[in-house]
Amino acid sequence: MMKIAILSQDASLYSTKRLKEAGEAQGHEIKIINYLRCYMNITSHKPSVFYNGKPLEYFDAVIPRIGASKTFYGTAVVRQFEVMGVFTANESQAISRSRDKLRCLQILARDGIGLPVTGFAHATQDIDGLIDTVGGAPLVIKLLEGTQGIGVVLAETHQAAKSVIEAFRQLDANILVQEFIKEASGVDLRCFVVGGKVVAAMKRQGAEGDFRSNLHRGGKAEKVKLTPEERSTAVRAAKSMGLRVAGVDLLRSNHGPVVIEVNSSPGLEGIESASGVDVAGKIIEFVAKNAVHGSMKDRIQY
């Protein structure tokens, strides 16, 4: 039996509840910890994490479920557990890396993983060149800080693209500009990777008239059979990010699968429902198997 902490702000969320259920079903002791209510003693001799005034000791592993808007503090808590020698389902550095969309794409590009043609610029006077870089309109404009499809705009003409980019830059927002993969027809693939294997996959179709396929935006999901190339791309993308547990989103383009996002805290409800796979159970099995090998000598160096 292992003692596992799930770091989550909300114990009522589907993903948090399923991980707890799956862990208990496998005979482990599971605690849900609101990481925002943790505080830390950062010291060389006895680093510790406190919760409700008591030190969190003797955990064999933690499963981070860090909200995108709370990445800075959440990863600090995960890092503190790492300093204490506790195995984490995803390491703090990998979570931070994947949350920075620009950094994520640059790392994937460095590792030769298929991506949509992507541009990034700072000054508004560079807009025409930026649009030309990705092959012109139609194109997709994304806020770097956006999640769940928020801040993602399809600009169908050059003038529309200029207007949207100028508006975002007036707000001093950082944006990415990407080629529009028309042949994907509003469909993307969510590949759920655990421990270097795709354990489940689903196809998501955008709501009527919406090119974004996010389930939070009204998209629909169903089970899908991946090609070997799609499976390999998802596994390589998770590995590039250093993520042990990841949701990798792909588009089917004319030049093969391209990665549009790598998520370090992928939701379980859509993928379990669409695929019929006990994904929570797979995560617990992976954590329990690998936490056995974690020890103080395996600490990450910072």
TrEMBL record:
Keyword field: ATP-binding, Ligase, Magnesium, Manganese, Metal-binding, Nucleotide-binding, Protein biosynthesis
UniProt key word Ligase: yes
Positions of Mn(2+) 2 binding: E261, N263
GO cellular component terms, semicolon-separated: cytoplasm
Record-annotated ATP-grasp domain positions: 105-288
UniProt cross-references to Gene3D superfamilies, sorted A to Z: 3.40.50.20, ATP-grasp fold, A domain, ATP-grasp fold, B domain
Sequence positions that bind Mg(2+) 2: E261, N263
Any Pfam family matching the protein: RimK
List of residues binding Mg(2+) 1: D249, E261
Residue sites binding Mn(2+) 1 per the record: D249, E261
Enzyme kind, highest EC tier: ligase
Cofactors, names only: Mg(2+); Mn(2+)
GO MF assignments: ATP binding; metal ion binding; ribosomal S6-glutamic acid ligase activity
Chain residues that bind ATP: K142, E179, F180, D188, R212, S213, N214
Bound cofactor: record note: Binds 2 magnesium or manganese ions per subunit.
Recorded family membership: Belongs to the RimK family.
Annotated protein name in UniProt: Probable alpha-L-glutamate ligase
